[in-house]
Description:
The chain is mainly alpha-helical. It contains 14 helices and no strands. Helix 8 (about 130-145) packs antiparallel against helix 9, helix 9 (about 150-175) packs antiparallel against helix 10 and helix 10 packs antiparallel against helix 11.
Amino acid sequence: MIYAKLTEELKSAPKTDNPEYTIFLRNLVMSYELNDLYEYFVPIIEDPDIDKDIRFSAYYSCSIYFRRNNKFEEMIKLADNYARYFINYALNDIVLSFKYRYTALSYSSSDMMYKAISYAYSAKKKIEHHKAILHHYAETIATGLDHDFIGDEEREGFIQEAINAINESIELWNTEPAQIKYAKNYATLGRLCIHKCEYDMGSYYITKALNYENGDNKDSLNRIIKYNNYLYNSQFQKSILVLHKQANEMSERLNIVTQNYENKINEVTKELNDSKLRFLEFLAFFSSIIAFITCTTTLIANSANFYIAVCLVLVLGGIIILSFSIFSMTLEVTTKINKNHTIFTIIIILSLSLILAGIFLGYHFVQHT
């Protein structure tokens, strides 16, 4: 009796490309228990004498029941056992997409998640402008993003595709006033906005989804819990972003302060080096003067011939000036400080002239005494 009645009810389902098809089967299957699926629905799926559309409706009804009741293993077994019989049905790709999504979550497999997205995309291409398929495609991408299954180089493209799909789904839902407040669409759009780093928009849409949930049944309460988690995640991610920006600003300020400090140290170090060199030159200069005065006094005091003593003083003066010039040039080379080379040349010529003059005059006086 139940078997025959169920067969007739499945036969009266809308066409598979009609968005009301899923709603019709959901209302039908959710009135049964899990054991009833294996007692009544599975035999219909397996009966080759029954019209294939009816068999597919029984198959798709089971998939609806399993996913709404979080029977993930049962959903995977259903697809493994019967999907191959319905490869020409577009909605079969939705069942396979759910299968691979659950497998990806169970085994943390990005490859399985890409397969789930691929089957969802295939269904979207086979039945265009189908509000439920569009939502499923966007939601599958959002799930992949939530669990970091989608590579960084592909994230932006997938996010934009999903947003386009969910916006189209919202437009299709909003064509009928009774369906405008479909919370799942806004929750999925909010999740996608979060992954786009638009946290305020994400919070807005998720809050909108929460406002559209009545909380009058178990499914609605479960969705409210999920949406609150999404909302907390959005607020948390926004806080992390703010902290990251503040950390970057502090790092930039610290770099500027450090650079200024280093520049100041370099300036002070340069000034100290320049001062040290000037002090060394002054010390050498005054030491030369003292040596010159001492030697001059000694030579004049101990020399028998005043003029010869003067010649020796000229030679000594030239040697002292030449030594001082060579010392200054050595400092210039070792410290890489550029000075006026013309002055150096003049001083060296002057020192050599004094030395030669002292030698010449001394030789002249020796010859005439």
